[in-house]
Amino acid sequence: MNLQKQAIPDHPIHKMLANRWSPYAFAERAVSDNDLRSLFEAARWAASSYNEQPWRYILATRANPVEFDRLLSCLVEGNQAWARTSPVLALGCTSSRFALNKKLNAAASHDLGLASANLTLEATVRGLVLHQMIGIVPDRARELYRIPDDVLPLTALAIGYAADPDALPEKYRERDLAPRRRKVLAEFVFGGEWELASSLVE
Amino acid sequence: MNLQKQAIPDHPIHKMLANRWSPYAFAERAVSDNDLRSLFEAARWAASSYNEQPWRYILATRANPVEFDRLLSCLVEGNQAWARTSPVLALGCTSSRFALNKKLNAAASHDLGLASANLTLEATVRGLVLHQMIGIVPDRARELYRIPDDVLPLTALAIGYAADPDALPEKYRERDLAPRRRKVLAEFVFGGEWELASSLVE
Question: Which of A14, A62, A110 is the best mutation test for B, with the most CBs of B within 10 A?
Answer without folding.
Answer: A110
